[in-house]
Amino acid sequence: MRDLREIIHPRSVAVVGASKTPGKIGYAVLENIISSGFPGEIYPINPKEEEIMGKRCYPTVKDVGKPVDVAVLCVPAQACLSVAEDCGKAGVHHLVVITAGFKETGKEGRELENQLVSIVRQYDMRMVGPNCLGVMDTSTPINATFSKNFPLKGHIAFISQSGALCVAILDWSLKRGLGFSQFISMGNKGDLNEADYIEMAADDPETKVIALYLEDIADGPRFIESARKASLNKPIVVLKVGVSASGAKAASSHTGALAGSDTAYDAALAHAGVLRASTMTELFDMAVAFTNQPIPGGKRVAIVTNSGGPGVVATDAVELNGLEMAHFSAETESVLRDKLPAMANIHNPVDVIGDAHYDRYEMALDTVLKDPGVDGVSVLLAPTAVLEVGRVAEVIVDMGRKYPDKPLVAAFTGGAAVEEAVKYLAKHGVPTYDFPEPAVATLGGMVRYADLRKSLADGEPWIFPDVDKNKVENTFQRVRADGRDLLLGPEASEVAEAYGIPAAPSRLAKTQEEARKFARELGYPVVMKIASPDILHKTDVGGVRVALKSDDEVAKAFDEILANSRKAEPKARIYGVEIQKMMPSGHEIIIGMTKDPTFGPLIAFGSGGILVNLLKDAAFRLARGLTRAEVDSMIKETKAYTILKGFRGAPPDDLEAVAQAIGRTAQLVRDFDQIVEMDINPVFAYPKGLSALDVKIRIA
Ligand code: ACO
Predict the structure, then answer these.
(1) Any domain includes 288
(2) Is the CB of 25 under 6 A from ligand 1?
(3) Interstrand relation of 126-128 and 51-52 (parallel, antiparallel or unpaired)
(4) Rounded-to-integer distance, Cα 138 and Cα 180, Å
(5) 245 — pLDDT class (breaks 50, 70, 90)
(6) Residue 541 Cα, ligand 1 centroid: separation in angstroms?
C-alpha cells in the first residue's frame, strides 16, 4: 500500500520529458517545481540533455540511482508506457501523468490507458491522471503542474475533474486573495479517483474544507464511504455538472419515471454528508465561509442593516434557504430600544437606520450576538455619506473574535465606496457579498452542513432482523425456472410479506372453481386481475374487476377477464386470474425502487395511485445505508406527508408503519441485488397499519 500523502509531500520528484525549450510543457513543469520552492530533490529526465535549469539531467529514471517518490510524465502518449515501465522498475512510488491522448480520445486511447493502468498496478505504483494539469500543495510547497500561477497559501483543497478550470480558478483566486492548501487536477482518473483525493485532503492538517468540481463519480460506494468519513470533520462542497443519462432510461417502472436524471447524485451527496453547490460562485462562497467561520449551532439568523429594503430582501432569503429569523429575548429588545433612535426597528431585521454611524452597528451587533436565541448574523450595509464604512468592517471583524461560535457574513452593497472595506473583511475571513441573498445563502449552506454532520453521526443503517430471506430466494428461483423476469401479483405479494410489508391477501386461480373457492376463503368483496407477465397495464386490456361480492360474480368475471386479455394480447402468457381481498380504501402512497448504475438502488416514497406520474410527488434516498432518520426525512419532504399526518381534521395515518415499509423495502433490494425494478403502488395507509395492493417486482 502506497502512502498517498507522498503525492503532495514528496521527498523527490523526477520530471520525465523535462525540456530546455521555453513554451514546452516539460519546461513549464520543471520550472514550476523549482520556482515553487520545493525543498526535495528534483531530477530532470531527458536522454538528449546533460543539464537543464542548472540541474543534472538523466537519460531515464532508472539512471537516477536514488529513490524517486513521484515522477511527472510530460512525454508523448506513445512514450508513456515505456516510461511508466522504467519508473516501476526504478521503484518510483507515484506517477503524475500530464500527457493527454488516452481515454478521452476514444477506443485506441482507452486501450492505451488500460495498458498504462496495468503497468501502474503491476509495479504497485499509484497514478494521478492521465490527461491532467498536475498537483500543487502550498505547504510542501510544490507546483508539479504547467499552470502559470501558484496559489496563495490557504486551507481549501480544490479537486477538479477539469484541468482548464484549475487554471482559470487559480488565476481568479489570486485576484480575490483566496488561498488553497492543495490543488489537484484529476484528469481521466485512470487509477486514483475522487475518493482517494478526498481521503488525502481529509488527512491533510492544512486543509479545512474540501471543494470538488466533478463531472462524474468513478466509484459510487467508495465515494460515499470516503466522503461520509471525511465530512464528519471537514465540510465537503461539490459542484457536480453534467446530467447523468442513467435516470432517464429506467422509465418502465413508476419509480424509474419519477426519478430525475440527477436524483441519484442528489441522494448520494446528501447521504455522504456532502453539500451540493449549484454554481462555481456558490462552491467557493461556501468554501471561503467554512474556512473562516464557525459551524452554526442552529438556524436562527439575525440581520442588522442600515436600510429597510435590503433587510426585507435578506428576510425573504432566510426563509428560502431553510433558515429562521431569530426572535430576540426581551433583554435584547430592551437594550436596542434604549440605544437606538425611536424610528429604528428593534425587532429582527434590526434597522439602525440611514443616519447611523459605525457605533450603532457596533452596539447592535454586540447585542444580537450576545442573545442565546441567535445562531448567526448577516450584516447589511449601504454606504451613506455619514457612515464610516471602514470602521464598520473593523467592528465586524472584532465581533467575530468576540463571538467565535457564531458565523458572521456581510453584504456591503455598493462599488467604490465599499471596496476597501470589502477587502479588509475578505482578508480577515468574513465572507462578504455585493447583495444580501448570497450572504444568507451561505449561512443556509453552513446550517445544512451542520445538519448533515449530525445525521452522519447517528448514521447506522436501519436493519430489520425479522425477514425471511429463504422464502424470497425460493420465490425468485421458481420465477426464474419458469423463464420469467416479472413476478406475478401473488408472488410479489409473498416477497413483500416475507420482508414484513403487509400486502393485501391474494391467490392465483387457474380455474373458475379455484377462483370461487379462493374468493370465499379470502372473504367477499374481492378484486380480480389477469395474471400474466406480459400484460403490464391490466386495466387497459379489461383485465381487472373490482368489488365482486358473490360466487356468481367471480365466476363470470373469471371468464370475462381471460377472454378480454386473450383478445387484447393474443401472444401473452396467461397464468390465470389473481383473486385479491378488496381492502378498505386508505390514503394512496407509493414505495418503490429504481437502480442507478453509480450508486445502486434508490428508494422512492411519495403520493401513489393512478395519478402518481402526474403528481410527481416523491422523495428519493439511497437504499444502501438507509438510516431511520433518512426515512423520516424523506417522508416529511413529500406532500403525501401533509395528508398522512392528518389533513383538515382527518385522523393521522400510521406513520410508523409507513416508515417501516420504506425501511423494509430498502433492506429487500439491498439483500437481493437481482431485483432490478420494484413498485408498490398503491399502498393504502390507514390510521392503524397499511396494505400493499399492487406489488411489482422485476428480477434480472
Ligand atoms: N524520456 C525522457 N524524455 C523524453 C522521452 C522519454 N522516453 N521521450 C521524449 N522525451 C523528451 C523529448 O525529447 C522532449 O524534450 P526536448 O524538448 O528536449 O526535445 C520532451 O520529452 C517532450 O517530448 P515532445 O516529443 O517534444 O513532446 P511535446 O512536449 O510536444 O508534448 C506532451 C508532450 C505535452 C505531454 C503532449 O503529448 C501532451 O499530452 N499535451 C497535452 C497535455 C494536456 O493537455 N494535458 C491535460 C491538461 S489539463 C488541461 O486541459 C489544462
Answers:
(1) no
(2) yes
(3) unpaired
(4) 7
(5) low
(6) 66
